[in-house]
Amino acid sequence: MVKITGPPPSNQKSWLRQWFDLECWTSVGDVHGLGGTPRSTATLEQCQAACVNDSTCLAVDWEPANPDNHSCWLLTSTPVLTTLETGVITHYGLNRLCLSEYLT
Known about the structure:
Strand content: 25-35%
Mean pLDDT: 77
Radius of gyration: 13 Å
Low-confidence stretches: 1-9, 12-17
Number of helices: 3
Order of helices and strands: HEEEHEEEEH
Number of strands: 7
């Protein structure tokens, strides 16, 4: 299992970008998974870090304009994907095998 722990270095944005530019996420626009759990995060990178740190997380849905201030949704079971016409949600699937190749 991969855990991102401890305080990030002073340049948090580049540190997080290092983890997530590894092609370990597959994105699909205009779709979301049913049954996600909302998380309070300010950025997509924080949302993805929350997923990486949760061993049951398989994917995230990112909805930056959510009116209830729930931009991040963690999906812990194989999601049933639903197509949207609004174009405001992006689904990101996490490839944990990819992560383990880079972070072991």
